[in-house]
Each structure stands twice: as C-alpha cells, then as structure tokens.
Amino acid sequence: MKKKIVILPGDGIGKEVTAEGKRVLQYIADSFGHEFEFEEGLIGHDAIEKTGNALPDETLALLKKSDAILFGAVGHPKYDNDPTLKVRPEQGLLKMRKELGLYANLRPIKLFDELLEASSIKPEILKGSDILFFRELTGDVYFGEKGRKDDGNTAYDLMIYQRYEIERIAHKAFQAARTRKKKITSVDKANVLESSRLWRETVNEVSKQYPDVTLEHQFIDAAAMKLIQNPRSFDVVLTGNLFGDILTDEASQIAGSMGMLASASVGDTVGLYEPIHGSAHDITGKGIANPLASILSAALLLDISFGLKEESETVINAVEATLKNGLRTIDIADAKTSSDKILNTSQMGNQVILEIEKVGNRQVAVGRDL
Ligand code: IPM
Ligand code: MG
C-alpha cells in the first residue's frame, strides 16, 4: 500500500513524541511491505514564530493532499498567561479541525492491566474499563460567536449546535456501539441549556434507526461523577465539544495517564491522529515524555484511515508487551518500578519497535515451519 502521511509535530513535547510515532509507522511500512511517504508541516507556536500564522496556508494545502495526519500538540506558556495575544497556537488546531471537517473525535479509553497501579483511582474500580468517547469537534462554544462588549467588561461565547451537526456524530457513535456492547450514554445539560435540549431530541430521533442499541442520557455533572465512581458502567459515550474536552481529560485517569491516550478525528476528508495530552512545556526538551500515546495514535491511523487491521494490532500488542516487560516512562511508573525499568522517550520507542520486530520474526519462522 502506498500512502502519504503528514507529520505535524507542533510544539513542546509534540516534536519528541511524533518522532517516535513516525518511526513506528516507518517500521511497520518496512515490515509489511508498504510505502509511506512522510512530509512535515508547521502548526502552533512554532508556525507563529516562523510565519506569523498558527496554521499557514502551505500546511493546510499539504494536509488536504495527504492520506492521513499524525499530529503532536500545540501550545506555549507565553500565551496561557497573556490572554490579550490575538494570534494563539490553539487557533491552528481549531482551524485545522474546522477546515478539514473533522467533526468526530474518537477517544478510546482502555486500561492496560499493567497500569492498574499507575492511576490515582482504586484498581478494583478500574479493572476492565473500556470506554469509547465520541466528542463532537467542530461546533459548540468553541466555534460559536464570541466577543467582548461594554468596553471589554462583558464577554460571551455562544454555545450553539445545529441539528445536522448532532445527527452526523450521533450516527457515527451508534454505528460504533453496534460493534461493541450496544450501549450509548449521551451526555448533555438538557436541564439548563437549550442547545442540550436540541442535542437530546436529535439523539433520541437518531436512536430510532438503531433499535438494537440501548440509549441512556446523563447530565454532564452526574456523568463526571459516575465516570470515576463506576467507569465500567460506560461503553460508548456521545457528547458535545466542551463537555467532551473535559470528560476525556478526566477519563485519562482511568487509563493510568494522559501519556497513554490516543485519539482520532474524522469527518468529511482526511483523518487526523493525535495524543490527547498537550505540549507539556514543563518537561519539553528533557527527553522523558511518554511516546505511547503518539504510537497508539499511529495504530489508530493504520486501522481507521488505511484499514490495516493487522498492522494496527501489531503496534498495540507491541505496546502491551513493552508494558508487560515492566518498562515505563516516568509518568506511568509507580513506587514499585525499579530505576533500570524507567525509559526515556526514544528508548521507549525502541522497545516498541523491538516488540514489533519479534512479531515479524515469528511470522517468518512460522512460514519456514510450513
Ligand atoms: C484537546 C485540547 C484542545 C481542545 C486545545 C489545545 C484547544 O485540549 O484536544 O482536547 O480544547 O480541544
Ligand atoms: Mg482537551
């Protein structure tokens, strides 16, 4: 298979982790006889410094011609503490989502058993958790009208949804639910917000086409509580942009660490794959960031954009095997991890590649036996 992949490292640890994700993709291509052509684009703070624009036109043009995108992270502390800056790294990400029509953000929260102890939640509550979030990604307060009035003393961000925006992501979530436990929890705030009442009405309407899937509704505040109280009670969660942003960070604790979570953003055109963690400037340049979320994003890319199921599973199994060997980056280490098992970013990438290599060798060996 011949494919064009754009790597968007972005800011902070984005550069360090996508380097490992890319290496894994290259290794998979070599082992399975595919040809992946990589190109790099600018986005975020890095792009602002070089071009004055958080998502330069050249980057957008490159993305539109690609078959899939592996993205790192955007953000810089300089902007977090100065809300008056007009050009901001996050604008690059939001514009990219909107321009590419990436309205469905899939965030699988799956706990690797080896990491049960790494979470701040009790292992007996976590064990067996497996949730797939569908976060709407191109609507809501993120893209509604925003502004200031009364000499800057009043600010607003309009929470707005149109029926078709809810319908299209609801269909994706119901279709996914059919391949899982046939249960969806739709999360909103319909007791207060009109946009949530439209959300609930539309999801109920769509659900009629999926009589085999059980639908329940929860308010965002209750869902936030239940997620920690009983994560196993969730399977597919369908929610809006802002609620999904918050709930999925919370849910990352179910998987042990933000450093483990991959996401896929899909919609009308090319798919985008990224860790759910941010640019983490506190650890940037130290070489200690966990690359597994980027590597698992690469696995999602292989599966969802290219339909390469075996290759994708090979990557996921290699990550699992690495964890089984007791190897950890610092964020997923616990008190019992000995210092020789704590790896830096590229060592972790190497280990995953070594595990992929073992699978490859096994396949060759089995072939010879026959
Ligand atoms: C995410 C991030 C982004 C978001 C930021 C960086 C704009 O938190 O992808 O979850 O809020 O969507
Ligand atoms: Mg977020």
Q: Any key phrases for this structure?
A:
alpha/beta, Isopropylmalate Dehydrogenase, 2 domains, ten-stranded mixed beta sheet, two-stranded antiparallel sheet, 19% strand, globular, binds 3-isopropylmalic acid, binds magnesium ion
Number of domains: 2
Class based on secondary structure composition and strand pairing: alpha/beta
Name the CATH class of the largest domain.
Alpha Beta
The bound ligands are: 3-isopropylmalic acid, magnesium ion
| Alpha carbon gap, first and last residue | 26 Å
Identify the overall geometry.
globular
Taken as a percent bin, the fraction of beta residues is 15-25%
What gyration radius follows from the Cα positions, in whole Å? 21 Å
Low-confidence stretches: 364-370
Major sheet: arrangement of strands: 2-1-3-12-11-4-5-10-8-9
Tell me, rounded to a whole number, the average pLDDT.
Answer: 94
Instruction: Kindly report the name of the CATH homologous superfamily of the largest domain.
Output: Isopropylmalate Dehydrogenase
Look up the CATH topology of the largest domain: Isopropylmalate Dehydrogenase
> Total strand count, please?
12
CATH-defined architecture of the largest domain:
3-Layer(aba) Sandwich
Order of helices and strands: EHEHHEHHEHEEEHEHEHEHEEHHH
> In terms of quaternary structure, what is this?
single chain
Please tell me about this protein's structure.
This protein has 370 residues and is of the alpha/beta class. The protein has 2 domains: 216 residues, Isopropylmalate Dehydrogenase, CATH 3.40.718; 136 residues, Isopropylmalate Dehydrogenase, CATH 3.40.718. The protein contains 13 helices and 12 strands. The protein has a 10-stranded mixed sheet with strand order 2-1-3-12-11-4-5-10-8-9, with helices on both faces. Strands 6-7 form a two-stranded antiparallel ribbon. Helix 1 runs parallel beside helix 13 and helix 12 crosses helix 13. The chain is globular and about 60 Å long. The site of magnesium ion has 2 residues, from helix 10. 3-isopropylmalic acid binds next to helix 5.
